[in-house]
Amino acid sequence: MLLAAEHFVRAPQWEWYILGYFFFAGLTGGAYALATLLRLVGEPRDEEAARIGFYVSFVAALICPVLLTFDLGASWWKFWHMLINVTPGDESLSFKYWSPMSVGAWALLVFGFFATVSALEAFVLDRRDRGTIGDPGRPLGGVASLAFNVVGAILALFVASYTGVLLSVSNQPIWSDTWTLGGLFLASGLSGSAALIALLTRYRPDAAFSLARLHLADGYFSILELVLLVAFFITIGAAGTALRTLPWLPLWVLALVGIASSLVAARGHMRVRPAGGSAVIARSRTDTLVMSLLVLLGVLALRGAVIFSAQ
Amino acid sequence: MAAAIKPGESYGFFTDTSICIGCKACEVACKEWNQLQGNEPKFLADSFDNTGQLDDQNWRHVKFIDNVPDQTVDAGSGKAWLMMSDVCKHCKHASCMEVCPTGAIIRTEFDTVFIQQDVCNGFRNCVAACPYSVIAMDQKTGTAHKCTLCYDRLQGGLEPACAKACPTQSIQFGPLAELQKAADVRLAALHSQGITQAELYGRDDKVYGGLNAFFLLMDKPETYGLPNADNAGLPSRNNVGGYIGALVTAVLATVAGLVAFRRRGMSGGAS
User: Fold this and answer.
1) Right CATH number for A16-310 from 1.10.10.10, 1.20.1630.10, 1.10.357.10, 3.90.1150.10?
2) Which one of A14, A74, A166 has the shortest CB-CB distance to B140?
3) Model-level pTM?
4) With an 8 Å Cβ cutoff, are A183 and B137 in contact?
5) DSSP-assigned letters across all residues of B169-217
6) Cα torsion angle, B100, A12, B120, B110, sign
7) Is residue B204 classed as helix, strand or coil in its secondary structure?
8) Cβ distance of B103 and A85 shorter than 8 Å
9) pLDDT tens column, A172-222
């Protein structure tokens, strides 16, 4: 039996800054997680793409707090109240494990440290490798460095996903009618990150070695995203709020185009794999730019569709 | 009732909509005391309502709900025109307080819910969470605003301005226990007069653990734009499901990444 949820709540007017924040949070977390995976299980030549991932993660992590602060409007100068409770007589660190925004603010801060250190390490390694021929150097610090990356990747996965949970933990229509948003934003963020790293291999030719793997991973993430998107519509349909998504149909279509692009790119790379050599190179040259841009546009559109449909 | 307002005791409002005459004295008194400028007047085409909603400038809002049937078949029994002076409910389990990341929303010594303006940083989580559409942003201050239950007046031993101004005592202020007793008596009186549709909203703990500002309604809560007990959920109800969904996705995505990146002999091409 369908039970229509009734909502009498006001929209929080989370608009462009929050959309931007959700987009870059997905990319910073996704790129860090992918870079770590490439380092952990990839071949030595995947290190080039891993470093792109750490750079992307760092830059996106810098943008996130700026967007969050702008969103506060006239109270922008009180951004630090997210971390410190300034209630007179009750001054303390502000951490509420039951509030995704509170946990997320701390996660973003701690993750920012990991993203910064990893980007610095990539920069140092790049300087060290300059002019050398052959495989890039392994991470500084050996196992300790990898362990650092793994901890950072766990935080990264949280940063990429908690924004969806944050929306669900409200009383807004659509957002609070589904459990899927955390997973959906994570899968989408990973997909977008894989596409962005693939796109940036244009400017780092040695990283093109990882291109096929990135497209393949992107395809897997998009399958996850598609499954979660179906679950999303089933859950909000059961709650009786699915019709609210209709005015934003163009954004939903764009999101689907992004998913389809990931799948096409992944399928293309898998299919041409046996041919190897120049055939693979020729195929991927034409694919990557367009596909990656479409995937990134889809990542943005998905978040926009979710955010605006409820408001 | 206001003579002995003591910290440590629970206070609230009992709003009896059956005797509200829609005069809006409460709205005026609230704005006067709290120095709220109000919004620009505009024609809402909604009966006698020119306020529209509760927001940062309207901490009391008299709702006019037209239930008059096309063909009058009976006396209406108090249902034909519903008037209700709406306000922050000061919930026992307050959604706004639950999600506020800064600790700006506190429970006062009078058991009311209060937004500290110097702590609030305008993230608007509380706006997204309040199921009654009570809280709104003041763009000038960049902070969230709502009824304070005249916190400053309570500290001075005065009853809230709206209750003081209400000419019909539709809005009653006092210790919660006393208000609940009064409400029970009033409900029993209405039922004995055959007005069986009358009900108390927020008197018990079925919605948000009970409301410090509770109501006697002449129709179903939904008619007044209030969530019924089935729909009165706290935001945190979605924490577990949301995080589990994200965790399962993270595990599957990690496995997918491992599979994709562990493949051997898959050198790609330049873009």
Assistant:
1) 1.20.1630.10
2) A74
3) 0.91
4) no
5) S-EEEEEHHHHHHHHHHHHHHHHHTT-TT-EEESSSSTTTT-BSEEEEE
6) negative
7) coil
8) yes
9) 999 999 999 999 999 999 999 999 999 999 899 889 899 999 999 999 999
